[in-house]
Fold this protein.
Amino acid sequence: MKNIDLNRLSAIKEIVDKDKQFRIMYITEIDSYFMAIIIWWAVAYERYYKIEKDDYELYLSDKDKFYEKFRRELSKDPSVCFTENFAGAPSLRDYDGRPDFQNSYPVPQGMTNPFQHFGYEDGIFYAHIVWENGEIYVPPVQALKNGGDHEYPLRERCELIRDINGRPICYKLKGK
């Protein structure tokens, strides 16, 4: 697990698509390509999607084919945009927990925010949460539509944390 601050990553080969409101780039610290789509919410933020070098080159050679390949992600529609390519976002609302899950337990003395950036592993930005009772890494939501239901592939690597009353708080990466 590599600790990462999404706001301080070094992006090169960056291309901005103003019409579709996203950028694609290569991030040197993690040797990977990403598409960052602007989300307009209470504050604007970006959702990061894994792409390959070939996808970056596809954008350069044929934007329409790129748009078609990533139409679900570019749609920003929550019922389809959280694909297997979704790698994370600076907003915890896109992570696999109940609303405000990060505040479920007290933080260590001297700390004000339990959210301590991200842990990066296997192409995913896990939210790093620090509580008095320990640290966890929470996966972003990947919700793949399968008929009328959704599958959550990242939950296979995780376990569900519950509060003292047995209510679900969030999923956390096993062994971390």
Notes: The first helix runs from residue 53 to 61.
